[in-house]
From TrEMBL:
Enzyme Commission no: 3.4.11.2
Protein name, entry field: Aminopeptidase N
Keyword Nucleus: no
Taxon lineage: Bacteria, Pseudomonadati, Pseudomonadota, Betaproteobacteria, Burkholderiales
InterPro entries: Aminopeptidase_N-like_N, Aminopeptidase_N-like_N_sf, PepN_Ig-like_sf, Peptidase_M1, Peptidase_M1_dom, Peptidase_M1_pepN, Peptidase_M1_pepN_C, Peptidase_M1_pepN_C_sf
Entry keyword Zinc: yes
Superkingdom field: Bacteria
Amino acid sequence: AVIHRADYRPPAFWIDSVELCFDLDPVKTRVLNRMRLRRNPDQPAQALRLDGEELNLARVLVNGQGTSFKLEDSQLILENLPEGNAPFELEVFTTCAPAKNTKLMGLYVSNDSFFTQCEAEGFRRITYFLDRPDVMASYNVTLRADKAAYPVLLSNGNLVEQGDLDGGRHFARWVDPHRKPCYLFALVAGKLVAREQRITTASGADHLLQVYVRPGDLDKTEHAMNSLMASIAWDEGRFKLPLDLERFMIVATSDFNMGAMENKGLNIFNTKYVLASQATATDTDYANIESVVGHEYFHNWTGNRVTCRDWFQLSLKEGLTVFRDQEFSQDLAGEASARAVRRIEDVRVLRTAQFPEDAGPMAHPVRPDQYLEINNFYTVTIYEKGAEVVRMMQTLVAGEGDPLGRAGFARGMALYFERHDGQAVTCDDFAQAIADANPGSPLARLLPQFKRWYSQAGTPRLKARSHWDAATGTYSLALSQSCTPTPGQPHKDPFVIPVRLGLLDAEGRQISDGLHVLTEDSDTLTMSGLAGEPVPSILRGFTAPVILEYDYTDAQLLILLAHDTDPFNRWEAAQRLAIHRALHFIRSGEHVELDAPFVEAMRAVLRHPTLDSAFKDLVLTLPSETYLAEQLDEVDPQRIHAVREAMRMGLATALRHDWEWVYEQNKDTGAYRPDSRSAGRRALAGMALTHLCLAARTSGDPVWPGKTLQRFKDAGNMTDRFNALAALVACGHELAAPALASFHALFKNEALVLDKWFALQAGAPDHGGNILPVVKQLMQHPDFNLRNPNRARSLIFSYCSANPGGFHRRDAAGYVFWCERVMELDAINPQVAARLARALDRWKKLADPYRGAAREAIARVAAKPDLSRDVREVVTRALAD
Ligand code: ARG
Ligand code: ZN
């Protein structure tokens, strides 16, 4: 049944404390749950309905006595509870089967260890409970298990007691000093080892930090530990938010549905976001670890100390915490240019993943109104668009001496915690606190209208039209906004859109810079006394998550690319130059030939004496096939793929000597350090190699493929090695196959590296339909395992979701493959299956024959009996008109 936000009611009972006792056994784990409950006096008297899923119920006692109960649609219903508001004790004894738990929600086994994942609704798979975030309890947890097989026993909070039991077993008792909702509960048991670090924070408190991994992985935990220490220092420094625990633990597991989980004091992570060594992890991995460790740590305040009232408020913690991790990564990057690179990367994710979501069948507001399965709403809209909404709030509280709004926003955060610490609250509560702490700010003045960003789905379009009156030296810019309907929302009211606007003169010198806030459907800005027609730099820093439409001429874009002081719009100018050309070739069907001004502009960037390597790499990266598809009303994926590949080849050949120069300039980065400057140099060197190998394909020149193979062999770190391998794969050179084989042999015992090996092959540029047969063959590889989400993603998602040229085939074989994998995965892990199901979200935009074939494949999934709720919601929405 569909759950509606408007139906929210406070719970009829409170659970004040929970005593859990686990006898851990992979086949049959016994869970004794003793709760203290009382009726919520503000709600009408009613039966107690506890959530439970896939549990075997053995016993229910109320105040120590047997009682009558019913089991109905995965709820345990108690109708004959003591009357009145006095607390009573409820004891529930159940068993579950962790080894059979392939959904990886609740208690499960991975590599012979026990792990839990309770967000959003996994706790009900461990015991009967009020599984909702507004019920907060104190936890006292005893774990019992075989000592040899499970020497480490962990749960939230402080270890208060441990010891041996008969029969080779032992126990540990943990008490969490903080009350929490059950989605933050966690336990871990297994053969693990920890890197430990003791720290004293600014407030003078001592803490023990631990990163737990499997015994062979200890040498890959230094970066995660450094990232954790940096996170703690950052939150204290920027927001005055201290670590509130004596012990903070991170545990890595290789079977995990998502990235990581912020369980109080016991974060559980996908190994992908913990383990790193220079031999096995790329610069991107290092950066992701820093940001995910930060993200989960920052949840300790934004999510855990103040949590969500209900799951419709998910962005309260996720949007805010993504904003915080983005700011953390920017602050750590240091220099302005490195900060800008981070910002551009974040916007790129938003535009290639969130904008399509907002335009497709799964479009939903940042605070949704309904859902069938909450796991489907851990989306780029809730996370990334949610973060942009928080960022706009910061922008809209800027003031005198606080141009970015940082001080004003920090004041708002302080008020938020002053008001709501220890509570389960809503997005409204958050926005109100930020506004109230900044009276007189645009945010405070416009708050009700601003909050449309929470309630209205869809990406607004911001149109700009300029008018220049040479006679009076007057320049005007007319801004207007619109937003197309999304499912269930035919009409949209105007948004509050902060637009940072700069004006440049014809020589590229800045004339003005300021923030304009558009609140109406349209509005005109006028500037007079200008000597000549200025070039507008609109939406600097991407101050709002909108699609900007302005008919830039090539001449204007070239000025912005060469001179804009705003690095975001400087990059954006290059993207627009490339998009103009790509769309022209896609629409006209003309043979792709790059024009001299474009090539010269790209050459100037590559050869630029002061621009960062990382920035050059971003500028020279053509807009993705997915992003190009979003610019078109009707999509022929093969045509887009062919045009983009031809443009890449054009840049490869026309700039051959420049790529050689760039490679020589950037190829050596000295002893490996994952800092942004040297990472940027490695990225640009890798990009140069790819283009040099591509150019060699047409010229038949063997030198660069040979040099690339040598670099692959000699590389001192995974970034250089992988980039060299990727260059050989990208140009389809015959050296690629032996290099792939030797890569596999080198890293056959490194699961995360094997994931890269699968992903590289499944995501490689398609030549005449060659990728699908490779993918099918790799499904049979002894190292492939559909049950492991990382491995499934590395092969299947890399093909279906990240390789449009390979996936969208005229013979529909890609869709048939997709359909079979969705159904196969659904029986194992519905959450992962539903993610894959979304690969065809945008089917309605496809040209025929793709469109009809895609529809048929989706309908085939939808027709399967006993689909999970997760997949059913995705395919039903996809087929709705
Ligand atoms: N709260 C986690 C994070 O953002 C995500 C957990 C989502 N898990 C899930 N099964 N839906 O860091
Ligand atoms: Zn999160």
